[in-house]
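FAQ: What does the model actually see?

It sees only this:
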Amino acid sequence: MVHSGTIIPEDIRVHVSPTVSTIVQFRAIDFGMERCDLQLIIPQDSASTSKPFILEVFRLNSTIPLDMRALTYKTRPPRVSKAAAVEANDAVGTHWSRSFACASDEVLTFELACLPTLDDGDCRVEWWQNKDNPQTGMPHTRDV
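And it is asked to produce this:
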């Protein structure tokens, strides 16, 4: 399992709410591997609600590392596709993964956002992403 392909975030706060989304980037750095795994691991008690809610994972159109200092909602890369709608359940935690094709040295960009709802109050989660020891968050791995 390789975590060193993380571009964004390094060691930062990941926050998702009805008005805030988070963008993560990874570089597929292992030569000769054609499959990547994206995982979303949210431990129990990370959400601000006890009710399950839906987090959407989108693939974004970006092939170069983003400048986080200049990134805004208006300048973020456009969404290419919806990778998943993941049920986050604070009572038991969340562990989701998806395998997909990737090329060596490819930059992979994803956005984590709340599924819009009528009440806009049930989707809030945050954690600190640790680049060197990603026990929670969105680690990216390469299949061996």
